[in-house]
Each structure stands twice: as C-alpha cells, then as structure tokens.
C-alpha cells in the first residue's frame, strides 16, 4: 500500500530543511522540485487525479517508498485537508512552526526580495497593516505577515478533518538543534531512524537589509503572546524557545 506525507507549512519555518533531509532517506521520495513547491492540491482545485499525481511526481518509485510533498501554502487552505482525507486516507501531515516573530520578519524580507514589498518593516509589521490580499501567480498572500503566525487556527482546521494523531507539530528551533525532534519525525512516519543532519543551516534563507527596530520586535512579541499561550495548551510547544514580551 502506498503511503503519503504532506509537509503543510508554515512558510519560512525550515520546511525545506526537513524535506531535503527526509528525501535523502532511502525509504522516502519527495515530489520534485522541492523548490518551487508543487502545490498540487491547490492547482487541481480539489479534482485529484491520483494516476496523474503519481505519473508527475513519483514515476518509477516503488510502492513501499514513502511519497512526500512539501507545499507550505497548504496550511492556509482547509479544503486541502479535505482533499487529503478523501484521496490520501492514510496520509500524514507535518507542520513546522517557527517563533512567529522571527517568521514574520523572514516573511517580510522574502516579500522584499521578490519585489512585492516596498514599505519599511516597522510599517509593514504593524497589526493594522496585515493584509491577506493575493498577488497574481502567488498561492498565499505575500503580506499576511502577522496572521500567518497565529498557528492554532490553521492546525485545528487540519486536526478537525484528519484527526490530531495524523498531524505532527514541530518547532523549527528544536529541528535545527537536532536530536529528539528528528527521532520524533522518523517514528511518526514509521521510518528507520537516522542521525540528524550536521551543520544544519536554513536551506531557503533570505538576506536582511538591516535589523528591525527593537520597538517593533517588542510589539510583535506582545501581539503573539496570547496566541502562543493558547497554542502551547493544545500542542505542548516549548514557549521558552520563542521570543516573549519583555
């Protein structure tokens, strides 16, 4: 029986590192390219053709090999969870969550690098500036810096459809430091454990033109504090790894 894994997000949280590391495992094969992402379940608009999916991404892959796809926009689309449930009934999903303050800043500079963002970070990273407007050719808004870090709602939408037992939630900071999180990944996927990769660096980092003002960092930490606390109650994340209000 074929098995499937979907790394659903979050954007700018180390998902490329996770996918590339798992892809090096002899019992795993990821849809290529890993970057840019396949986003198959968005492009097919719910009309999943498993034969076409297999032919496009997994041609020649033996049935026992775990098939993986990394598409970080998925976490923002509850209908993708429904497609996974209906067409990949035993599939598992992994969400990688980064300190939402750092994630928002990285998202901002990513939008700058790609020519979407012209405002300074202190303006763009205001709660009142958060914008879900889509841009042609982009599957998720390049301006939803803050709402994208309010993780619990996205996770619950998937857990409600798939069941919490099929959703693994990881923290970027633990993944980068290796050890327990990687063992958790391999066990969750039923794979033989391997040593965590050495010298782990972000696989998809973007340049930052300057530091963000300290006042903006403190404002973001205060903004996320109640959301993070609720997330910790549901998914047991370690808040000590993330920025907290002064």
Please summarize what this structure is.
This protein is of the alpha/beta class and 246 residues long.
Structural class: alpha/beta
Task: State which percent range the strand residues make up.
Answer: 5-15%
The global form is globular
**Portion in helices:** 40-55%
Element pattern in H and E: EHEHHEHEHHHEHHH
| Sheet of most strands | 5 strands, parallel
Low-confidence stretches: none
Strand order of the largest sheet: 2-3-1-4-5
How many distinct beta strands? 5
Distance between the termini: 51 Å
Assembly state: single chain
Q: Over the alpha carbons, how many angstroms does the gyration radius reach?
A: 18 Å
Q: Give the overall pLDDT as a whole number.
A: 93
Query: Can you count the helices?
Result: 10
Q: How would you describe the overall organization of this protein?
A:
The structure is a single chain. This protein is an alpha/beta fold and 246 residues long. It has helices at 15-23, 40-43, 50-57, 78-87, 100-113, 121-124, 151-162, 172-177, 180-189, 214-235; strands at residues 4-9, 28-30, 66-70, 92-97, 167-171. The chain has a 5-stranded parallel beta sheet, with helices on both faces. It is globular. The mean pLDDT is 93.
């Amino acid at each position: 029986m074929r098995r499937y894994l979907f790394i659903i997000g979050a954007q700018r949280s180390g998902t490329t590192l996770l996918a590339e590391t798992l892809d090096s495992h002899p019992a795993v094969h990821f849809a290529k390219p890993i970057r840019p992402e396949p986003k198959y379940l968005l492009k097919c608009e719910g009309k999943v053709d498993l034969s076409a999916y297999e032919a496009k991404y997994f041609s020649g892959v033996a049935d026992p090999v775990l098939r993986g796809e990394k598409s970080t926009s998925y976490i923002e689309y509850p209908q993708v969870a429904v497609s996974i449930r209906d067409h990949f009934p035993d599939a598992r999903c992994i969400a990688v969550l980064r300190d939402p303050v750092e994630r928002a800043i990285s998202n901002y500079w990513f939008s700058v690098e790609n020519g979407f963002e012209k405002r300074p970070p202190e303006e763009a990273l205001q709660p009142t500036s958060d914008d879900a407007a889509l841009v042609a050719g982009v599957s998720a808004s390049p301006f939803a810096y803050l709402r994208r870090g309010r993780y619990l709602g996205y996770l619950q939408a998937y857990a409600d459809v798939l069941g919490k037992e099929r959703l693994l939630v990881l923290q970027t900071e633990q993944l980068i430091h290796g050890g327990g999180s990687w063992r958790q990944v391999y066990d969750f996927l039923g794979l033989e454990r391997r040593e965590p990769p050495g010298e782990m660096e972000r696989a998809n980092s973007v340049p930052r033109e300057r530091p963000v003002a300290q006042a903006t960092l403190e404002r973001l930490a205060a903004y996320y504090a109640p959301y993070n606390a609720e997330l910790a109650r549901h998914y047991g994340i370690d808040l000590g790894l993330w920025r907290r209000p002064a």
